[in-house]
Design brief:
Layout lengths: L7 E3 L2 E3 L3 E3 L15 H9 L5 E8 L16 H16 L4 E6 L16 E2 L9 E2 L5 E2 L5 E2 L2 H20 L4 E5 L5 H6 L14 H4 L1 H14 L4 E5 L16 H9 L6 E5 L17 H7 L4 E4 L4 H9 L5 E3 L2 H5 L3 H6 L31
Parallel strand pairs: 3-4, 3-14, 4-5, 5-10, 6-9, 10-11, 11-12, 12-13, 13-14
Antiparallel strand pairs: 1-2, 7-8
Helix pairs in contact: 1-2, 3-6, 7-8
Amino acid sequence: MTSLFDPIRIGRLTLPNRIIMPPLTRGRTGGAGIPDALVAEYYAQRASAGLLIAEATAVNQEGDGWPGAPGLYTDAQASAWRGVADAVHAAGGRIFVQLWHMGRRVMTRDLDGARPLAPSEIAAIGEYRGKDGIRRPPAVPRAMTLNDIHRTVADFTCAAERAIRAGLDGVEIHAANNFLIDTFLRDGTNRRDDAYGGTSENRARFLIDIVDSVSRAIGADRVGVRMSPNSAFYGISDSSGKKTLPIAARMLNRFGLAYLHLIEPEPGSGHPMATDLTPAAPLIRAAFDGPLILNGGYDRNRAEAAISTSAADAVAFGTLFIANPDLVNRFRHRLPLAAPDADTFYTPGATGYTDYLAYPVAA
């Protein structure tokens, strides 16, 4: 029976275990989005994971709206990622980086007064922090032109190329959580009447264009995709229910991707992304031919059950990795788990970031 501790092939990598660290936005790269030695130390501490997927990283300035989040659109940012990759590899690990564009969630003050981009002129619901950390309601976005779409595809591709040149092992395309690609996928946010709107296949076209371009540039076996089937973040919705994302997953099969990564907490789990909808993961599992990573408040027992029943090929553990840099060892030996301090999730500095200790060796 397959377990969390068995190796698995992901693209061109053979992972020593199926315990994945997913992207966790931690806000430690300053206003210029440049990861420093502290960031490198943080990831190297967690290098025993089968795969590290580094935090959401902006592909261009107009998609960069999270305080302290990194980027991969300048030479200085790319050069700094080399230090992270080298530190992880020296510790025996493997690391992808997640590429994102925040779309309509970027604040106008972070765009010098310009409106953020989206498939249609539909604002996100709620108030959110901009780069200055102050909460405000977002502006009504500007519907992207075809030129905007083609330019953004090129920016994802350029960021992916920078990642590989920096020594990172691959990239994950962020198509989840109501950011730009996800808003194209859902008919509640995509009201276009061109080739990028209407049917589920058309709404998936933007994602497919990005994956196609990035795969041609760096190789599909270095590319993963993340989706959030039941996410209701920022008022996102899709009247087609469980239809759209399985269709998108099936369309991705032609690339031979490294993996598909789903964040979908169980209903009633208390996770902020949990909804009352029945899970879409089984439908997507049936549609997608490659390795599937599940994520969403899993503990070791639930993860083992998902692996042993082939519901997933690997499982990602987000919050647990924050406070347990040696999570693989703790799981393997059933050692106690440390609890994270939520007040330091997004604050600058080492506190709540690199000061969590591995379990004592003697134990």
